Amino acid sequence: MSDLICIGAIAGAFGVTGEVRLKSFCAEPSDIANYGPLLTEDGSRSFTVTLTRPVAGGLGARIAGVTTKDQADALRGTSLFVSRDRLPSLPDDEFYHADLIGLAAFDPGGVLLGKVTAVHNHGAGDIIEISPTGHKSALLLPFTKAIVPNVDISAGRLIVDLPEDVD
């Protein structure tokens, strides 16, 4: 598990006065502003964010020290991270994506299927990507209780009940 968790990204400038469009990865998008200064992945830069309004595709925000459109545009694509210890604890059947990445994936009979390499969400629910040991290409599976009935973070593993049409 990483000490930093990605909770958003800067999508570019919004307007001409240095405001940016933020994409929040938080369950409640506006929570991104509640975690204090946000960091770049390497921790070399820190951003103090103040939300201004909802905008198409995200949230409008001001970043301390950013006052021009050019400065805001220069930040486009910057991922925003927070220290893991600043995030709230989750209920038993909820997980941070970062906790799932790297887990070994086994079928119900104990056969190693591969390793979780990514978790995607394109709006219709989480999809886990498993880099396979015995398949030609990556497995992309819905992250549902039916497909992934057991996740054991402390043991570094999860159980995947593959649909019948996956071989």
Task: Describe the fold and architecture.
- By secondary structure, the chain is mainly beta.
- It folds into two domains: 4-85, RimM (Elongation Factor Tu (Ef-tu), domain 3), CATH 2.40.30; 97-159, PRC-barrel domain (SH3 type barrels, Roll), CATH 2.30.30.
- The protein has helices spanning 69-74, 97-100, and strands at 4-13, 20-24, 38-39, 46-47, 49-55, 58-63, 79-83, 104-106, 112-121, 126-132, 139-142, 150-152, 157-159.
- Strand 8 (104-106) and strand 9 (112-121) form a beta hairpin.
- The model has no long low-confidence stretch (mean pLDDT 91).
Provide the β-strand percentage band. Answer: 35-45%
User: Which whole number gives the mean pLDDT?
Assistant: 91
Low-confidence stretches: none
Under the CATH scheme, the architecture of the largest domain is Beta Barrel
CATH C-level class of the largest domain: Mainly Beta
- Class computed from helices, strands and strand pairing: mainly beta
- Radius of gyration, in angstroms, nearest whole number: 19 Å
Major β-sheet profile: 6 strands, mixed
Q: Distance between the terminal alpha carbons, to the nearest Å?
A: 30 Å
Number of domains: 2
What's the helical proportion of residues?
A: under 10%
Number of strands: 13
Order of helices and strands: EEEEEEHEHEEEEEE
Shape: elongated
CATH fold-level topology of the largest domain: Elongation Factor Tu (Ef-tu), domain 3
**What is the fourth-level CATH superfamily of the largest domain?**
RimM
What is the oligomer described by this structure?
single chain
